[in-house]
Structures are given as C-alpha cells and as structure tokens.
Amino acid sequence: MFQFLKGIVKFLSDNKEWLLSGVGIVIIGFVFKGIAYLVKNNTNHRGKIKIKVSFSQAWVQSILGQGPVFPLITFEITNVGNSEVNIKDVLLFFCGKKVQTQYGKTQTLTEVGSNPNLRTPIKSGEIKKGQFEISGIQRCITQKISQNKKVRLLVIDTFGNKYFSKKIAYQSFVNNMTTSNMVNAKRN
Predict the structure, then answer these.
(1) Could you tell me the pTM of the whole model?
(2) What is the mean pLDDT of the chain?
C-alpha cells in the first residue's frame, strides 16, 4: 500500500499539471455546490401568496328601494411570504383549456380593473380582498362549457410569478347566476 502511494506522489511530482488541474476541479466543485446551496435556500426573493375564493350576491340599494341582485366571485389574497408582492393581474384560468369568448379563444379572463386596491403592494401578512361580477364573465363566454369543468383564480405578480387558487367547478358560477336570476325574477 505504501509503495502505491509513493508511486502516486512520484507521478504527480513529475506531472505537476495533473496536480493543479485536480486541485482546480475540486475547488470548482466546492464553489458550484456552495452557489447551488445559496440559490436553493434563498427563497426570500419570491413572494408566497395564498388565495381563497368564494361566491356572494351584491344587493343594490337605491332611492326607489332595492335594485337588482348581482352574482359575484370574491377572493382574498394573503401574502404569507417575507417580502412585498405587487399584483399585476388577477385572472380567471380555465385550467389549460381554451374557451371561445367574444374576443376570440383564450385560457384566461381578466377583471382586475374593477379592483384598484390590488395595485398597491401587499406587505407580509397583509390581506387584500377583491371581487368581480360573474354575469359579465358569462356574457363574454360564447361557447357551452360543461358543468364539471374546473376553473381557478390565477394571480400574477410583477415578477411574472404565478399563483393559483384551488379548483372550482364551473357549476358554482352557474348556480350563483341562477340564484341571482331567481331573486331578481321574484322581485319584478
């Protein structure tokens, strides 16, 4: 065994470029491993968002009494990360399938314009609430969508990171619309 080590030392002393390249490879390996560790464990730069979605009805009150009832999809966006998050878009996402709308085929519909409070940065632990009307969405969609079709709320921040809510059955939209239409029909 000692002779073997002696042979390796003699070989490396005669061929110093092998020794230098071997040491260089080991150093580069440690540097890359350190960089990979830092990149993997430094998640503070990416925000973390939790999205809750529910359905509600909006009663419009006027001088003449109660006006029509509007079906709404309401959502809460909670920043559960350590850094601020700036919301760019809140979209209705049809789980990868394209649907036919008045404006052409699309996978998403946007309604963030009716939620100006989402344009301000969301601090860590802060909750932002928003809503949009379902009847406008249903009027926009021109194709028949199956009742068991799944949709999600998709939130995109200014860095392009995407966050999804849990899946919702499209039937929930239809049920909320039907309820509003029934209430409005009884009142007229």
Answers:
(1) 0.65
(2) 77
